[in-house]
Structure formats: C-alpha cells, structure tokens
Amino acid sequence: MFDLAIRDTVEHRNVWAGAFLVTAVTAMFTASCSYAILLGMLGPDSAFLTPTARDALQEASANLMVLSGIPSVLVLGWVLNTLVSQTRHTHSLWRLAGASPQQVVRIFSTQVILVSACGALAGAVASVPLHHTVASLLGRGTIDASQSPPESARYLGILISVVIVAAWGILAGIRPGVRASRTSPLASQAPDTEAPVRARRLTKLLLFVALVQVPLLSPMFAVPRSQGLAAGFVTLLPATQALVLTVALGAPYFLTPLMRAWTWLPGLTQWTSWAIARHIAITRVNQSSATVTSLMVGIGLFGNFNMVVAAASNAQGTPINTFDGILMLTPIAMIGAIGSTAVVFMASRRRAHDLTSLRIAGASPFASVAVFICEAVMYVVTAVLIALMQSGIVFLILTACASRWQTSIDLSGLDLTGATAVVLLGGSGTVMIMLMGGLAAWRRPLSTCLVNE
Q1: Are 68 and 51 in contact (CB under 8 A)?
Q2: What is the pLDDT of residues 324-335, one digit of tens each?
C-alpha cells in the first residue's frame, strides 16, 4: 500500500505539487514561529531588553502559528478537494481492482502525509535565513535576535514545524479522503473530462453562520454608548474577518453566475480568445471554486481589517497602531494567494489538453496565449469582485453600528496596500504559471500531445 501511494504520487506529481506548495509556504511561517518560541524558552537573558520581552515573544509567536494554521487547513482542504476531482479515475481503478473504501482512505491519507511532510521540510529549511528577521518583528524591537538559542533548537524547530504541518495536512485531508473512497468503480469508464458537479450542501455554511458569524456580531450591541463609537467598531473586527470565510463557504452558490454575468461584456464576447477563455473558466470554477475563493480570502481579510481600522481611527480622531494586525494577517493572505496559484498549477494537464484542442483547430501561438491570459484575468477579477461584495456587507455592518451613536461612518484614509499586494501576488502567480504551462505545451510536437491524450 505504501509503494502504491508513492508511485501514484509520483505519477500525478503535477497535481500533488499544489498541496506541496501550500504546505511549504505554511511551513515557512510555522518554522519561523517555532524558532521564535524556542528563542523565548531557551534564549539567553541578554537577548531580551525588557522584563516582559520573553513572554511577549512566545505569546506573539504562538498566536501567529495558530492564525496561520487555520487558513492553511482551509486552503489545503480546497486544494485536496480539487485534487480528488482530478484523480478520480485513479481512485475508481483502485476500487475496480478490489480496494475497499477504507483502503482508498488509507492510501490517500498516506499520500497527504508524505506530501505535507516533504513540503513542510522544504518550507522549514527555506525559512532558516528569515528566522532572525521574524523573531525581531515578533519581538517588536525588544529582543536581540542575533543571540540565538542553542543550535539544536533550530533543528528542533524544523522538526516541530514538519510534525505540525503534517498534522494540519491530515486534518485537511479527512473530507477529501472520504470523497475519494466514495468514487464509483465505473468512473474509470467515463471520458476524462471534468468531474461531475457535487451537490451543494448548506450544512457547513449554516453551521458556521450559526456558531461563529452570528455570535461574533452580537458584541456590537453590548458596547455601552459611553465607550464611544471607536470601541463599537473594534468589537466588530473578528466578525468582519469571519465574514470572509462565510462568503468563501457560500461561494459555490453564486460564483458561476457571477462569472457568467460579468464576463458577458459587449465587444469582448465577440473576441474568440475571450469567448473560449470564458467557457474554460466557467467550467473550471463550476467544478472547484478554490481557484477564486483562495485569493478572495487573502484580499478580503486585508480589506475588511483596513475598513474597520479606518472607521475606528476617524471615529476617535487618532490613528490606530495596525502593526500587530498586519503582522498576523500577512501569512494568512499569502497562504490564500499561493493556494489560488497552486490550484491553477494543478490544472496544467487539463490546460495542455485545452491547448491541444486549440492547436488542432488551427489556433496560432498568440491566440493560445491570449486565451490563457484572459482566463487568468477572469479568475483574478472575479476574486476582486467577490471581495468587494463582502466589503459592501462590512460597510452595512459598520453603518448599523454607527447608527447606535446616531452618526455616520468615515472611511477617509482607507489603506488598500495590503489588499493590492495580495491581488498582485496572486494575479502575477496565476498569469505566470498559466503562460509557462501553455508555452511549454506549445513547444511539444502535436503528434506527441495527441499520443499523450
């Protein structure tokens, strides 16, 4: 069983590379936090410039590790769900060969552990040059990060990171593993096209709204008016961050209609490259929303945070220190942007199939590149539009909060640097991967492409 898991992972390495990339980026933050925690535990007293610096460093590092873990499990779960859809023929062949659902789950879980551990190891090692910088940022200038703990602590931090990220991978792979075990043995007889659309289930969304979203909104009504409007806005910060996840969970219900509506632009629909890209993009997101929602999460978290901060700062008349918030949001936003890029990379085989069809139809290299660029633009713009939609909901929530003080909100000075950076990171990664994959496939002889199909 272990040999089968390794062979299948190697055979579908382009698909599993998406999970590897997400875990590697997650491990970069986890390993840096582990190093900072060990510095706080084992570092010399001379490294801490204030009496509370040691405890503050450990607390900030632990918080950042936990906060980076939550979105990584969510994004990795989306990536693994997409992976199951793309490898369902393999799972059906396992079932056809006599494998029980429990054996399929064990094989898939073994693959998740292997890829997560390897990705975590690569990310943890790559983060070593950043350890001192991250520790200094988390210490807020109260530590001397150059005075390191024992060298063995660095290796221990890497080991801890690998174990933690592998555990997150197992947690994220539970539901995709169950989906893989339910693959019909007859699926291998179907054409190699997109997986059937799974039933939209409201249970997860309703539970999140009832157990998380609504309780986080209720403190808004408990803030005494004597504390001022700024205090009311600050209490809404967790609720506005949770709103991003609420919208992400509900995205499968409106993502396809939204993309279908805004891409129907007068003039562009007559352009063949745009029309083909529109068909491909709508088909992709109809089967998996991870390409768009992962990027939207990063954009929305920064956008909502800055909206609340701007409203609270203007309400109290003095700026609010946002260093801690930005420090905590940065890994979450990066994991979201990288997750979106990873899902695009996972579809490289299907994109090669699309390019082969275009070449058979007589498309030129320029027309093919235009299709891929248009497709990437559609993903990024759709993510931005969804982020703007939920920002509009945040605006309504802030307005409702301000109505208790019988005033209006002021968002002047709103800083969109973080959200813009996430758009540029995710957008450039998506465009680059699609272009590189398309150009590499175009350089292959058409006869070879047809044989591989």
Answers
A1: no
A2: 788 888 888 888
CB burial string 272-301: b at 16+ within 10 A, e below? ebbebbbebbbebbebbbbbbbbbbbbbbb
Spatial contact of 293 and 78, defined as CB atoms under 8 Å apart: yes
Question: What is the pLDDT, as a whole number, of residue 139?
Answer: 83
> What DSSP string describes 145-177?
TTS---HHHHHHHHHHHHHHHHHHHHHHTHHHH
327 vs 329: CA distance, rounded Å: 6
Q: How far apart are CA 424 and CA 430, in angstroms?
A: 10
Q: What is the pTM of this model?
A: 0.85
Residue 391 contacts by C-beta under 8 Å, 6 or more apart in sequence? 300, 303, 304, 307
- CA dihedral (139, 143, 147, 153) positive or negative: negative
β-bridge partners, 48: 143
Q: Report whether pLDDT(291) > 50.
A: yes
Q: How far apart are CA 219 and CA 233, in angstroms?
A: 10
DSSP code, position 289: T
The CA–CA distances, whole Å, from 380 to 61, 86, 101, 329 equal 32, 22, 37, 20
User: Higher-confidence residue: 442 or 55?
Assistant: 55
